[in-house]
Structures are given as C-alpha cells and as structure tokens.
Design brief:
The structure is a homodimer of 680-residue chains. Chain A has helices at 2-39, 53-56, 76-101, 110-117, 128-143, 151-172, 179-182, 188-209, 212-223, 229-249, 273-304, 309-324, 328-331, 334-342, 360-384, 394-418, 423-428, 439-455, 459-469, 475-492, 497-505, 523-526, 541-550, 573-586, 627-637, 656-670; strands at 44-45, 69-70, 534-535, 539-540, 555-559, 567-572, 594-596, 608-609, 620-622, 641-646, 649-655. Chain A is mainly alpha-helical. The first copy, chain A, has three domains: 11-58 and 70-249, Clc chloride channel; 270-503, Orthogonal Bundle (Clc chloride channel); 523-678, CBS-domain, CATH 3.10.580.10. A three-stranded mixed beta sheet of chain A has the order 3-5-6. In chain A, α11 runs parallel beside α21 (497-505) and α18 runs parallel beside α20. The longest helix of chain A has 38 residues, at 2-39. The relative contact order of chain A is 0.10. At the A-B interface, α9, α10, α19, α20 and β9 of A face α9, α10, α19, α20 and β9 of B.
Chain lengths: 680, 680
C-alpha cells in the first residue's frame, strides 16, 4: 500500500517535471521566434538576416544608432508598404494554419479550459494538432501587430502539453481501481489528470509573464474548481520547473525571465491616492466596456462572418498595421512599449521622447499620442479578440492601461509642477523636488487596473504585477487600484471576460466559486421524472443489450421493482459493457440469460451477475432538497448524477446539465432578464 | 431583495474596514512599544527617557556613536545584571497577566483558530480579555528576549478584533432567516462571521510581516477551510486596510511597513543551486526536529509543570538572557538581527562585523558566532514555544534559518575565493569578481526554508519573503529552496507545527485540505446506532419537555413510527424550544397536548405544530457509503449531523465527532501507530 502511494506520487512528479520542462522549452522558443518576427516588419539585420534587432545590435553602444539593422528602403512609403505587407503575410499564415488544421487553436482558450477542468469533455481541444497550431500560430499572430497577447494561448498550449504528456504516462498504467466497490465517483487517475491540467495552466501563465507565483495564483483564482493544497503544490512545482527552464534557455539574453524589469527608487505619497483611485475606476470601466462590445462583436461574427474568417483576419491586420504605423505605442511590440511606459525618466540615460516634456508642443504631442494609443487600442481589441487566430486579451489590456496611466501621470506631474508650493505637496515631497511624481508608476498601476478589469482577478493581478517589476514600494497602491477596479466590476460588471464567453457560448460550466441563486427552488422542479432504471432481478441479456444499443444514458439507477422502486444502487454504462464482455469470454450467453444486479451467489453459470460492479450507496437526496444543496453536491463530490428519493423510493434523477438548463430557464425565461437576447 | 443584498455587502465592508483599521492601529502601537521595551534592556535615552534608541539617536550620523543613548553603567557586569533583571521583569509581567486574566492568550493561537474557523466553538478564546492580554503580553514577551515571535499572536489578536467587532455589528441585525424552510444548515450571518475571522487572520499576518499579499495567502493556505473567491477578496480588503493604517501611522519612521528592507543588486548563478538545496534540506530537518521535540516538551509541561507556569517562564527568561548576552545575534532583537544577516556587504558603508572577514581569526569568530546562534536558538525554541506567554514560532525559526544560511554563505564565499579560477565559477561570474557570492542571500533563503519547514506552508512563505525584501531576482532560488523543504517535510515530517499541536491537544478539527485515509471503511462502522428520534405523531408536550431537559442532542431525526422508521425530516434543539415558547404565548399548553411534526392543519389550537420548523430534506446517506464521502459531505456542506438510511428507513446518525473518534480509533488503536503514546 505504501509502495503504491510512493509510486503514484513519483509518477506525478515525473509527469509534472516533463510537462514543466516542455512548457519552458516551448515558451523560450516562442519568445525567440516572436521577437524575430516582430522586428522584421520594420527592417532586417544586414550582417546576419536571421538575427533579431537586439542581437543584431549586440554590443553597439546605443540601439538607436545600430548600423547593422537597416530599414528596407530609404524611401519612407516603401517601408510603410513593407510593414503592412509583412503584417498581412504573418496574419494570413497564422489564420490559415488555425482554420485548416485546428479550429480549436483560435482565440484564447481559457474559458474552455475552465469547463474541462470542472469536469466536462471537449474532445480535440487538447489534442496534439491544437497544441502545434496554437504554438506556431501564436508568434505569427503577435508579430503581425494584431492586438492580441500571448497569455491565454500560453495557458492553452501549456494545458495541451499537460494533457498529451500525462496521457502518455497514464495510458501505460491504468490505476483505475476499487472505484465501484467503494462507490467513489472519480477515479484517482482522472483526478491526477485534472490536477496536471491545473498545474499546466499555472505553468502557462508563469512562462508567459515570467511570473511563477502569479501562475500558481492564476490556477487557484481562475482555473481550479476545487481548491486543494496538493493541487496548489503541483502548480507551484510545475511553474517552478517551467520558469527554471525558461531562465536556463535565457531567450532574451538578459538573464531575466521577463522581457523587462523596472525598479522604482521613489516612494509614493498619500496625496496621490485619489489618482490611484481614478486609475482603478478606469480599469473597471475598461473591463465593462470592452467585454460588452466584444461579446456583441463575437455574436456579430458568429452570425455574419462564419464563412469569412480568413478575410476578416486579413482586414483586421491590414487596418491595424495601416493605423499603427503612425503611433509609436501602437507600432512597437506591446511588451516593449510597456517597458518604456513603466520607466522613470532619468537625467543620466537618454530616454524615449516620452520623457521630453520641455515645451507645450512636446507635452501636447505626447499626451495626444498616449490618448490615441489608448483609444485606438481599445477599439482594436473589441474587434480583434475572438477572431480566428490564437489571441489573448491580457497583454493588450495592460498596454491600454499603461498608455492611459502614463498620460494621467504626466498630467499629475504638470499639475504638481505648477503648484509645487502648495501645502498639499510640501507635506508629501520637498517643494523643490521635480521628481515628486513618477508617471511611470501610473502606467504600471493603469496596466494592473486594466488587467484586473478585464479578468476580474485580484490577488493574481497584484502578484503578477509585483513579479513583473519587483516594485515592492508600490504594493499598497497596486492593491488600492485593483480593489477599486474590483468594487466597480462587482457592482456594474457581469464577470470576467472568460466567464462571459462561457455564458455566451453556452459552455457547460457551473462556477463553483460563485453563489448560485435558485430563488428557493427545490430539486423537484429541475429533476428528470421519466427515469430509465434497471430492475434488480428479472431482466434478460436481450433487454440489457437492446438497452445499451438504443440509449446513451451514462449512469443508471437499479431498483427493486417497478411497483416499489426502492433504490438498490447505480451502475455505469461502461461497467455494464465490461461485465457483459467478461461474461462472454467465460460462458455461453443466450438472449434469455437472466441478469442480476443484487445477488449473493456470485458465480452461477447461467446468470450474468453485475453485483460487484454496482455502486450500492450512490448519492441521493430527498424530494424538497434545495437546488443549491444539490449543486453543492455536484461540484464538491463530483458525481455524474444524483438520485432523488422519497421514503426510500426512487422519484427521479438529476444531472449537472439538468441544473444548468433549469438555471437558464429561471434566469432567462422566467425573470426575463435577457438583455443580450436582442443582439444574439 | 436587491436592497437586502446591497445592505449585507455594505455591512460586510463596514465591518471589514473597522476590523482592518483596528488591527492596523493595534499593530502600529505594539511595534512602538516592543521596540522601546527591547531597547531599554541595554540602555536608556539620557535626553528623553521615553524615546527608543533610534529616535533618541535621530539625526546623529552614526548610530554606534550616539551620545544621548547611554548604557546603565560604565561597569560591564552591572549592565549584564540590568539586562537579566529587566528581562525577568518583562517576562514576569507578561506571564502573570496571561495566567491571571486570560489563559487563552498564552501561546500562538493558530491551531485553535483553525478549529474555530472549521466550525467548532471554543468559548472565551476570542473574548475581549484574551485580546487585551494578548496585545499587552506580546510586546513584553518579545522584549524580554525569549525566543518568541509576534506572528502567531498577531493572528490571534487580529481574529479577536474581528470577532469582537463583527459581533457588535451582527448582534444588532440578526439576519438569521429562512434557514429551516430551505433546509440550509448554515445561516448567512454565521457564514459572514467566519469569513470575517478568516479575513482578520489575513490582516494579522499582513501587519506582523508588513506583507499584505502574504497575509491573504496565509488565510487561504493555513486558516480557511473552504476556499471561496469571496473570502479571498475579503481577506485582501481587510489586509489592505490594516497595512494602510500601519503605513499611515508609520511606526518605524522609515516610511516602510516592514522593519527592514533589503535589495540585492547581484544575481544568482546556476552553480549555487546545490547550496540552495542544502538550505532547503536544513529547513526540512529543522522543522522535523523542532516540532518533534517541542511536542515532547509540551507534553512534559502538561504533565509536570502545570502548577509552575510562572516559574517556568522566569527560568526560561533568565537562562535566555544569561546566555544571549554573549552572542551578538541572540542578544539583539530578532528582526534587527535578520536585517543585518540579509544585507550585502558593501564597500561604501560601514558594515556590521559580520562583513569583516579579513583574517582567519575573524572568519572563525564569525562562523562560530553564527553556528552557536543557530544551535542555541533551536534549543531555546524547543523549550520556549508553548510556555505561558504570547508566543509565535515564525520569526524565531526565520532567525535560526538566517544565521545558518549566513554561515553557509560565508563558507561558499571562502570556497569561491580560493578557487576563483575554477571553470565552474568563470562560467557563472567573472574570475576576478570578489562579489560573486552574496552570503546575505543565503541568510534570506535559510530563513525562508526554516519558516517553510516549521509551518509546512509553501506559496505563503515565498510571497512573504518576497514582500519582506522585494528580492525579485531571487524568486526562483526561493522557490527551489522551499520546494526542497516541502518534499522533505512531505516524506519525513508529520505536518506543520499548528497541525501537530491540534492533534496533540486533541482539538476537534478535520483538515479539509488533506485526504483522510479510512482504509475503505464505510459509514456503518462509525455511526451511532442508538439514535434518539422523534415520532412524527403521537408525542406529547410532556415527553418533549422531558426530552429537552434530560438530553443535550443538538439535532434530532423525525421518523414515521418506531416500527417503520421512515425519515420525515430533522429538527434542531433550538427550534424545538422556540416553537414551544411561541405556543406558550398563544395558547394553553397542558402536559398531554399532542405534538405534531408533519401535519397540514397548521393552526389547530390543541396541538403544538412543529411542521414549519423542521427540515424535511436533511442530508442522508445509505448504509455502505464510504467514510471519505461522509467526511466530504461534512466539511463541504457543513451539516451538524448526517442521517444514515437503508430503503428509506433510519439506521443511524453520524456527527463530525463520531468520525474523528473513529479515525483516532483506526489510527491509534487498530494500526498501533501511536509513537507518542509513551510520552503522553
């Protein structure tokens, strides 16, 4: 027994290590490819065409004066054309790969993964083809300049890796045992499998952001449907391995696992809190607006653009590149842009022109660039998220928040400059301190706020932002901003974008974190009355085989008699088939061979005995049990169906889908709160 | 309905804000008092006796040459005597306050809080007196130099604050309703109450470490028995408010909420990983040894020192101060010591003598000091943790880990110095780089490892260490070290010290995070057969009142008849009494008035009708249900008891205590694995 446990835990470690290493390796490769492809839109390396910009210019004192990296032509319009053309080629490749080989690889994937982890199957979603197309399509889509991020897709390909590798391992060793005798409704291997998916999702976020702890928290706050310390540890371990491999491969050659690192030397001041709150409000509004219009766009796409997916992607990529070329922060890679936005302006190094605010013209120009970048990016996100390329929404949201935050920061800095003798400031920072306000921190907080606004995550966002920058001094401001966003979302929002997509697409998902409101309805209302049950005695082989052939019920109750349906147990469809196959090998089965489901004489030759395969103590509830309790039972104990009885007699059966159907009926039909129905 | 929800959520926010503010205020005050009391053991401020050392020396260029802070005498032995005497006075005061006014204020309190949050009551443990004595006793105990930390006690007083304040609010507005009709087993107000306790515990850790996110994770990983997103958000909010108040009050006058801040400029190298693993192993072994011997000490104390608690504390304080005076790292405040241990040695500032490693004598001296500090501190912790003063084990453990880690770091540095041309190093850092190894980071990792070893927490420890120092570059080493500690603990340890104390003290706690092993036992074995049931009809008022007077069953099943015990529902003792009292007001009740539990004619004058107060659909399981499933039902759905039936007939009743009793029986009586029984 002890050895079996040891073997199982070792097996888990081996799988997690393999999964972590693979994810880290894939992430590092994708990082390198993405950077190269992003760069070739604006130019190429004249000495070695296969180098990206930073390697091409390696060793040069100032990147802006790098001699090896050249633009395509001296003639500006030609460069512009190249920029657009390459964007089109990249997005075309990404989209056609996805559409032809793995349609599941489009979009983010987080919604579907939440459903899979909560116990539903979505075949093909975690297949090898999906993994390949998602990994190949992702760098192409990002490099094409579309407003897409890599985080959602990273989670998806990571979970694919987890699924593929753990299936390889678990197939060889089916430790599916003692399930029926003890009446356990989940097998240990399927539990392990789910845990590995959760751990992989953690590793996916970890490598995407270079934030191992953020990954762990993401898996707790967003993916995992049941919090267990062992799952948390598995996520921790898998993230650590993945990030460690990423660090070893060192894709950015900076020794860092994140693309940028910012440190703030200056502290914040209490008088800045109102501005932090404004940033939080922005994030909340951002989340609500983007998800509302994006859902409308997705519904429009479903209705009218079904056949034109590739064209749509091309048009989006075209428009994006045509517009972006003229705005610095839209043109450059989003991560690169955020690095510039987060940074403190310093006197020593030469800064981006965002720091040049000497005269009114420069100020106006900078503010306009930032405002336009925020607004255009928001519009692009609404149209792009959900189109048929691998696409995440985290990083584009952060980019929006960062441009908005930086603009606000610059305004606050100007206000301070013109009122620096005010008593308000002198208590906070010295009157002559020109460095009192750091606009970079506003960009940082804006990014946190927008990320929280779109995902409705709190703890995860704070930890990710913290790991991205190590801004220890800014943990309280970050928490304040995210808290404001959360409060706005709770009161005016409809849930994170992943949950809204689940609802919109009608995916079978019961959110275990939320309280469901069934208005005191009881199980009687939602259950299926006409249940198909097996009789304890008296059925023949013929009846059972007809039954298997004609129906597709997965779990069946066994009752004493039709007149007196006392519950004797349940049996799964798979078990029925297994027993019949076993018996066929051993004895001669005829059509009228009787089938027994509850019998003590086990090996009678002229009977098919299912007794050892039934679960004699299934989960049952009484008539009148509140639906909330039944729902609790479903996602906490994980049965496939629950029997309803009264005085020991079977009255009905209920499944998760029955509950979802009933909840839908309650909310959309009865209460009439179907605001989206006009759009659909 | 909407207004009620709004009102409730507002109420929660008001309570959480009040709780957070109070906790932040108390924490700031305690910090100030602790620092003052710690300092007066070695001297006093000659200009203003009420100032602590750092304020007394405020503005002086170098603290070591502060002129206002003077020792008690020029004569060294007199200073030594004063040091011991003040320690004795402080510990005497702490202990006698606790013993006389609030015995529950002794020790850490985390174990008991885990039990309370999981649903058991421990009256007086969260009372105002306990709160007062814990808050007053804590600075005294820490300042007396005993090897105690403030984290456990901080959690305890924070939860007291949460309990006291929420009771004030919730008393006024009892929203205990619709419980019986819907059959819900928990009331919304008791749920809110528990959530507030969890949120308070988060705030307690947040203010103790100055680590708001660490607090949130602590409440998830250690305290909360059911993870819900709403609880996490409440913890987040409460921690934020508490830390914000702490920051406003600025007790250290450094603008920081932590006592120290360390930043590492240098990165780590791959060849250091074996040493990180050694640190992890140290933490694992540390945790196992300390908890094993501490449990033995606690059992010894229980048996032989029951009457001599005060004397014991005095002897401990005496011995501690006599020994500590001669070891730099034992003598100074633990937090202060850790700050020195974590720091990089720099050429610019004058460093502590720990950085002076010019000759062999200095090296030997430093290493000996560190080794002795580690060893003596470990012995002191074993004897001190559990004595009758408010006492946490987190910080002392971190201090042990830090001294050990620093010693290891110095050894590695020396090894590198003598082999700096080795190929191993040249790949990592430049051959002539004397700053290749940073012993401070080893101290930091050692502290993380020891903290994880004693608490068995992983994610929380990583986040706390991260928030303490902002050592962004060291997140992977921290994770590696903590992972090694975790693996050792899982394989050789017996659980975190809080869980071991729960088991040792026989507190009623079912750990929801763990898989319990019942070796396939079913509910039949553990249930109570002789159940007391109420008959649906036929009982008289006399029988009911005798029943109430003579028994103390909290929940009672209602059956159809003794011959045919079909389950009709359950009723709580409180409901029985309520209905009787209501009826007594309305009508004339005689001893032979019949009592009906399931009747449709509701208001007959000559009957006491309990029908509206019963729960007609209690949670039931069948005979043969695995105990693991029953346990799942208990901590996931939270009923007080579960009925066991077969064919609709009542067969027995089971409560949490029955399960715990049976688990104890299985593990200690049947399997004979009772290693501690010799000690007890």
């Amino acid at each position: 027994f002890k050895w079996l446990n040891l073997y199982r835990s070792l097996q888990t470690y081996v799988i997690l290590t393999a999964v972590g290493i693979t994810i880290g390796f894939v992430a590092a490769s994708l990082n390198i490819v993405t950077e190269y492809l992003s760069n070739i839109r604006t130019g190429y390396c004249s000495s070695h065409f296969y180098l990206n910009k930073s390697f091409c210019c390696w060793g040069e004192l100032e990147e802006s004066k790098c001699s090896n990296w050249v633009e395509y032509s001296q003639f500006a319009p030609l460069n512009y054309t190249m920029f657009i053309l390459i964007s089109l080629v990249l997005s075309f490749t990404a989209s056609s790969l996805v559409l032809n080989y793995a349609p599941f690889a489009a979009g983010s994937g987080i919604s579907e993964i939440k459903c899979i982890v909560s116990g539903f199957t979505l075949s093909g979603f975690l297949s090898t083809w999906t993994f390949l197309m998602k990994s190949i399509g992702l760098p192409l889509a990002i490099a094409s300049g579309l407003s897409v991020g890599k985080e959602g897709p990273s989670v998806h390909y990571a979970v694919c890796v987890g699924s593929i590798i753990s299936k390889l391992f678990l197939q060889g060793f089916p430790n599916k045992q003692k399930d029926n005798t003890t009446g356990k409704s989940r097998t240990s291997s399927s539990l392990t499998f789910k845990n590995i998916l959760v751990a992989s999702s953690a590793a996916g976020v970890a490598v995407a952001f270079g934030s191992p702890m953020g990954g762990v928290l993401f898996s707790i706050e967003e993916i995992s449907n049941m919090f267990k310390l062992s799952t948390m540890w598995e996520s921790y371990y898998c993230s650590l391995v993945a990030v460690f491999v990423l660090k070893l491969m060192n894709p950015f050659r900076t020794g860092q696992v994140v693309m940028f690192e910012v440190t703030y030397d200056r502290d914040w001041h209490f008088f800045e809190i109102p501005f932090f709150i404004i940033l939080g409000v922005f994030g909340g509004i951002y989340g609500i607006i983007i998800s509302k219009y994006n859902i409308k766009m997705v519904s429009f796409r479903k209705k009218f653009l079904g056949e034109h997916a590739l064209k749509e992607v091309l048009i989006l990529a075209g428009i994006t590149s045509i517009i972006s070329y003229f705005n610095d922060f839209l043109k450059m890679d989003m991560t690169e842009g955020m690095q510039i936005l987060y940074e403190e302006c310093s006197d020593i190094f030469e800064n981006h022109k965002i720091c040049h605010l000497a005269n009114n013209y420069q100020i106006f120009n900078t503010l306009l660039t930032l405002a336009l970048a925020t607004l255009i990016r928001m519009i692009l996100i609404v149209f792009t998220y959900g189109c048929k390329v691998p696409a995440g929404i985290f990083v584009p949201s952060m980019a929006c928040g960062a441009t908005f935050g930086r603009a606000l920061g610059i305004l606050v800095q100007l206000w301070h400059k013109h009122n620096s003798s005010s008593k308000l400031f002198t208590t906070g920072c010295l009157a002559d301190d020109t460095k009192c306000i750091t606009p970079g921190t506003y960009a940082f907080l804006g990014a946190a706020s927008a990320l929280s606004g779109i995902t409705h995550l709190t703890v995860t966002v704070v930890v990710i932002m913290f790991e991205l920058t190590g801004a220890l001094k800014y943990i309280i401001p970050t928490m304040i901003t995210v808290a404001v966003t959360k409060i706005i979302n709770d009161n005016y929002g409809k849930g994170g974008i992943a949950d809204q997509m689940i609802e919109f697409n009608g995916l079978p998902f019961i959110d275990p974190h939320e309280d469901h409101d069934f208005f005191d309805h009881v199980v009687d209302d939602a259950m299926t009355l006409k249940t198909v049950s097996l009789l304890e005695k008296g059925l023949t082989y013929k009846q059972i085989s007809v039954f298997i052939a004609d129906t597709n019920f997965q779990t069946l109750p066994i009752i004493e008699s039709l007149q007196k349906p006392i519950i004797k147990g349940i049996i799964g469809r798979d078990e029925l088939i297994t027993v019949i196959q076993k018996n066929q090998l051993l004895k001669n089965i005829e059509l009228d061979t009787p089938c027994h489901f509850s019998s003590t004489d086990s090996d009678s030759m002229d009977v098919i005995n299912f007794t050892n395969y039934i679960n004699p103590a299934p989960i049952t509830v009484k008539l009148g049990t509140p639906l909330e309790t039944v729902l609790d039972l479903f996602h906490k104990l994980g049965p496939k169906c629950i029997l309803i009885e009264q005085d020991g007699l079977l009255k009905g059966v209920i499944t998760r889908k029955d509950i979802l159907r009933y909840e839908y009926y309650l909310h959309n039909v009865v209460s009439g709160h179907n605001e989206d129905s006009e759009v659909l």
